[in-house]
Design goal:
By secondary structure, this protein is α/β, with parallel strands linked by helices. The protein folds into 2 domains: 200 residues, Periplasmic binding protein-like II (D-Maltodextrin-Binding Protein, domain 2, 3-Layer(aba) Sandwich); 192 residues, D-Maltodextrin-Binding Protein, domain 2, CATH 3.40.190.10. The protein is 43% helix and 14% strand. Strand 3, helix 2 and strand 4 form a beta-alpha-beta unit. The relative contact order is 0.19. Pfam families: SBP_bac_1. Belongs to the bacterial solute-binding protein 1 family.
Length: 428
């Protein structure tokens, strides 16, 4: 039985159309010391602790501000580097986790719920359910039919660029892969690195693989591959890597030594022409330049699938099974579910969209409105590679494998054989 609960246009973001970890050491990893949210008033529910992966400046400030509005309890936020948080989440949840922790919808939520590492919050959903579409509820539901997750924000992946640079050079968004490569060649001739690219953190290359696979082989094959049901030595998978290899000459070089933030800054500085990333790339733009940021969906490769699929991951909150203050934690999750809380977040963080269907989107920037429109028009929405597959497969197999490919793009066959061998051992 397929428990991934994929979102499709019919039951998906009607949302967008309608609404146009970690203890003080995270199992030995360094982190910020837990500090009370500034200005926090103490209520009658004691203290609620939060393990947060919002380590970048803008999302960190956004969470701090939202938590300030929660007055039913005192809160302590323990912020850990985003990648460190993800890499150590399993050990964290089995150790001494905070009450509430930031996490992701879909398969990654279900994986920990199945292991008994998260609290059933179906009673919370009885109160907040009317604020969400069925699609968001599906992505918050475990294989047992119970809810374990409260969606907070989401964001689409697309190809971002600076409008002023493109207007100056006469560039137009490409509709096909051939047009995309022709545009990249023109950028090279103009002395611009065509595609900003970074994979020091391990996960950004997953977005490139996702979109090339969905454009080449379709959403259903992609989700089946992520579920361990397809062979990585399948010629269809090799075609994805062959296509990617053909684009490598247009990518920003030395990607394994660059963070996504640095690649985003190169786009902001007009040193690169375009960047396939989540809408959170806007965080790397000075506020005065954000109106100059625009995007197009990655172009068609296979006419059978066109541009019907995108990645649009959902971020939110869960309660750890070892929570010391479950009542306070549930009250905090209800606070996160409020449209007013999400309105604050999307105003402070220009790279996010509110998950609540009751959120006020009238204050969305032009970029946010375009993002919501892109999601609403997609037939299929994936949650991102490391959220659509098992976390152990994503972290121990796919991160090093994709980094190997980025470093040595001509050695595809042995790479795919190795991925398939490891997959067979994990998906038993």
């Amino acid at each position: 039985m397929d428990h991934r609960l994929p979102i499709s246009r019919r039951n998906l973001l009607l949302a967008a159309a309608a609404t146009f970890g970690v203890p003080a050491v995270l199992a030995g990893c360094g982190s910020d010391a837990p500090t009370p949210a500034p200005g926090q008033a103490s209520g009658n529910l004691g203290t609620v602790t939060i393990g947060s992966n919002a380590s970048d400046e803008i999302p960190k400030r956004s969470l701090d501000t939202v938590v300030k509005g929660f007055t039913q309890a005192t809160t302590r936020i323990n912020t850990v580097d985003h990648n460190t948080f993800q890499e150590n989440i399993n050990r964290y949840l089995r150790g001494t986790p905070e009450d509430v922790f930031t996490w992701f919808a879909g398969n990654r939520m279900q994986f920990f719920a199945e292991q008994g590492l998260a609290v059933d919050i179906s009673d919370v959903w009885q109160e907040i359910g009317a604020d969400y579409t069925q699609a968001f509820k599906d992505q918050s539901t475990g294989v047992d039919g119970k809810q374990y997750f409260v969606p907070f924000t989401y964001y689409p992946w697309a190809v971002f660029y600076r409008k002023s640079l493109w207007e100056e050079k006469g560039y137009e968004p490409p509709a096909t892969l051939d047009e995309f490569t022709a545009l990249a060649r023109k950028m090279q001739a103009d002395g611009i690195i065509p595609i900003a690219f970074a994979d020091k953190d391990g996960w950004p290359a997953m977005g490139t693989f996702d979109i090339l696979n969905m454009r080449t082989n379709g959403y259903d094959f992609h989700i089946s591959l992520m579920g361990g049901k397809e062979s990585w030595t399948d010629p269809r998978v090799k075609q994805v890597f062959d296509t990617w290899r053909g684009l490598m000459e247009y990518h920003q070089p030395a990607a394994l030594g660059r963070t996504w933030q640095e690649a985003g800054q190169s786009l902001a500085q007009k040193k690169t022409g375009m960047y396939l990333l989540g809408m959170f790339v806007a965080q790397q733009f000075p506020e005065a330049d954000r109106d100059d940021l625009d995007f197009f969906t990655f172009p068609e490769i296979n006419p059978a699938y066109g541009t019907d699929s995108i990645d649009a991951p959902i971020d939110g909150y869960m309660i750890s099974a070892k929570a010391k203050n479950v009542d306070g934690a549930k009250a905090l999750l209800k606070h996160f579910a409020q449209a007013s809380s999400q309105n604050i977040a999307t105003e402070l963080d220009p790279g996010t969209l509110a998950a609540s269907s009751k959120a006020d989107t009238s204050g969305y920037s032009a970029l946010q409105k375009r993002g919501a429109e892109l999601v609403s028009k997609a037939t299929h929405i994936a949650q991102f590679l490391d959220r659509d597959t098992r976390p152990d497969f994503a972290s121990t197999v796919m991160i090093p494998s994709l980094q190997t490919f980025v470093g040595k793009p001509n050695e595809i066959d042995p790479l795919l054989v190795n991925i398939e061998k490891q997959k067979a051992n994990i998906f038993r």
